[in-house]
Amino acid sequence: MRKCFALMIFLASFLLRVLQNLELVHAVGCAGSLFNVNSTYAQNRHNLFSTLASKVVANGRLYNDSLGQNPNRVHALVFCTRGDEQACISCVQKVTQNIQTSCPNRMDSFQWNNDDVDDQVSCLVRSSNHTTFQNLELRPAVIHPSPDSIEPSKNTTLFSKQWEATVNRTIQVATEANTSSLLQYIGAVKAEFTEFPNVYMLMQCTPDITSRECMICLENCVAYFKTQFWGRQGGSVSRPSCLFRWDLYRFHGAFDNVTIFHAPPRVQPPENDKKGKGIRLGGIIAITVPAFITLLVFIGLIKFYVRRRKFNKGIYGKVGRAEYSDSDCQYMLRFDLGMILMATDEFSSENKLGQGGFGTVYKGILLNGREIAVKRLTRGSEEGCMEFKNEVSLLTRLQHKNLVKLLGFCHERDEEILVYEFVPNSSLDHFIFDEEKRSLLTWEVRFKIIEGVARGLVYLHEDSQLKIIHRDLKASNILLDAEMNPKVADFGTARLFDTNETRAETKRIAGTRGYMAPEYLSYGQISVKSDVYSFGVMLLEMICGKRNNSFEGEGIAAFAWKRWDEGRPEIIIDPFLVEKPSNEIIKLIQIGLLCVHENATKRPTMRSLIIWLSRETISIPLPKDLAFTRNESQSEDGTMSMSSVFTKLSSR
C-alpha cells in the first residue's frame, strides 16, 4: 500500500514538472520602429531569414549578416549552442518563422529558443535595422515568470540569501573565460539549498560581446525579475544579448556539465531549541501528511491546469488588477510598472507620441497584441500629480464614444502613469493645421468631427452621472480614431460640478489662452458656457484651417466677426473647401460666432448646438453685439488678452 501511495505521488510530481516545462516557452521580443509588411524592408528581412539556418552551420554556429541598402538594410545575428547540425537548422528555421509571425512589422526582434523538452538544441535569432554584432543589446526584454508562487514560509529570508548567492556564482561561471567560443559565456549551476529544493540556474550571453558587457546584461535580467516577479517559483528574462533562467527542476541540456554549488547554510539555533522544534515539526508532519497528501496532490493538479489555461493567454494579456477607490468605490484598473515598461520598450524615444504640459505620451503594445497610449506624468510636478488624480477619478466613471477611454493607471515607486486606448490618427491639430494633411479633412469629415465633439460635451455637461466642465478644449485635445471619429481627451484640468450647480469661481486658472472664455480668464468664473466658448474657437479653426493666434493679433473670433459684419463670411473658409456647400459652412460660422459671445448668458448650450447641427431647416439666432480685442490686447504668445477685453465690455 505504501509503495502504491509513493508511486502515485511520484507520478503526480513528474506530470506537473513536465507540464510546466511544456508551458514555459519564450516569447518573441518586438520593439523599434514600425514598417509596412509589404515594404522593401519586410522583403529583405524575409530573404535574409531564409538563408540563416544553412549559413550558421557553415560558419561555426555564430553568424552575423545583413541584406539590402539603407534605409531598408536588415541586420541579423544567429547563434546555436547545442545540438547537431540538423537540430541547429531546425531550431533556427522555427525561430525565424516565429519572429515573422509575432513581429510582422517591428524592426527590432529576437527570440532565444531554450526550452525544447528533449534538450537537444538551443539557438538565438535577432534582427534589426542597425548593426548589433559586437554591441551590447538590452532592449527589448521578454520576461516569463512561473505561474506558481513560492509557498509562504518562515525561511523565505534564508531562501532569498541562498538564491542571491546562487546568482552571484552563476554570473561568475558564465563570465569566466572559456576556450570554446560557443561556451564562452554560459553558466549552468545546480545549487543545493539547506531547507529548500535544489535550484537550477542558467545564464548565457552571445559570444560577440565582452565579459564585462555579459555581466551587465545578466545583472539587468536578474534585477528585472526581482523587481517585477520576485516570489514566483522560477522564471526567465531574455534580452537580445543574454538569457537568465532559474527553476526548481532540471530544464536544460547544459546541466550535463553543471557546476554544483552548496548554498550557504543559515546560522544554526541553540541545540535545545533545535530539538524542541524538531519534535514539534515531526509531530505535525506525522499527523497531517498521511491524511491530506492525496487530496493535496489532486488539488495541485487541478490548480495547475486552471493556471495553465490562464497562462496560455500570456502573462501580459492580464494587463492589471481591479481596485476600488476609498472615496466612491469606483472601479479602476491598476497596471504593473513592469507591464508598462515592456509595452513601451522602457519608454523608448521611438515610441514617443508627443509631449504635453505635464508629461509625455508613448505608444505601447501589450504582449496580447493590444495597442495602448501611455501618459507618463512629469516626476515631482504638483500640477502633474493633480492631473493624475483628476483623470483617474473622472474618466473611470465616464463612458462615451466621443470621449477617450482610460484603461487604467500605474502608481508605483515615483511614477504616475495613465493608460488610455490607443487612437491611431493622433490629434486633430496634426491634421487641421498641416498644409498637406488638411486636404484629407473634407467637409464631411470636418462636420463629423465637429458634431462628435459637440456630442461628447453634451454628455459631460448633461447626460453623464457627473457634471463636468472640461476647461481645456482645443484641437490638440481632440483625438481621431481610425475612422476619423473624434474623442475628447486630457481631463487633467477638468472641473466636477454638483448636479444642480451652474457656476463656480476658482483662483486657479487652468487651460490655454485664446480658448478661455473672458469671464473665466478674468474672474475665474466657470460654467458649461466656458466649454461652449472653447468649442466655438475650435469650430472656427476647423472652418478656416488656421490657428486662433495666427490672425494678426486679434484672434480668429474677432477676425470672423469682422468678415460676418462686412457681409463676407466666405472669406474665412479654408480654400480646400471652396467647392463645398457654402450655405452649410456659413451656418456653422454663424454657430461658432454665437459660441464665442463675450456674454456667457448669450451663448447657446451644447444641447442647442446638437439640434442646430442635426436639422437643416431650423431658425438659428443671428450673432450680434459681439466685441473683441485689438492689437493692444495681444498677449505674449499671440493670443487674445481677455482680461482687457472684459474690462472694456464691463465698462459699457
* Relative strand content: 15-25%
Distance between the termini: 104 Å
* Largest sheet features: 6 strands, mixed
Global outline: elongated
The stretches of 5 or more residues where confidence is low (pLDDT under 50) are: 1-26, 304-331, 629-652
- How many beta-strand segments? 24
- At CATH level 2, the architecture of the largest domain is Orthogonal Bundle
**Rg over C-alpha atoms, rounded to the nearest angstrom:** 32 Å
Question: What report would you give on this structure?
Answer:
Strand 17 (406-412) and strand 18 (415-421) form a beta hairpin. The protein is elongated and about 90 Å long. It contains 16 helices and 24 strands. The chain folds into 4 domains: 25-133, Killer Toxin P4, Chain A; 156-267, Gnk2 domain, C-X8-C-X2-C motif (Killer Toxin P4, Chain A); 320-421, 2-Layer Sandwich (Phosphorylase Kinase, domain 1); 429-650, Transferase(Phosphotransferase) domain 1 (Transferase(Phosphotransferase), domain 1). The N and C termini lie far apart (104 Å). The chain has 652 residues and is α+β, with helices and mostly antiparallel strands. Helix 1 (2-23) packs across helix 6 (271-312), helix 2 (40-58) packs antiparallel against helix 3 (85-102) and helix 4 packs antiparallel against helix 5. The longest helix is centred in the middle third of the chain and has 42 residues, at 271-312. Mean pLDDT is 78; it is low at 1-26, 304-331 and 629-652. A 6-stranded mixed beta sheet has the order 6-9-10-8-7-11, with helices on one face. Strands 1-4-5-3-2 form a 5-stranded antiparallel beta sheet, with helices on one face. ATP binds at residue 375. Residues 1-27 form the signal peptide. InterPro entries: GNK2, GNK2_sf, Kinase-like_dom_sf, Prot_kinase_dom, Protein_kinase_ATP_BS, Ser/Thr_kinase_AS. It is found in: Membrane. This is Cysteine-rich receptor-like protein kinase 39.
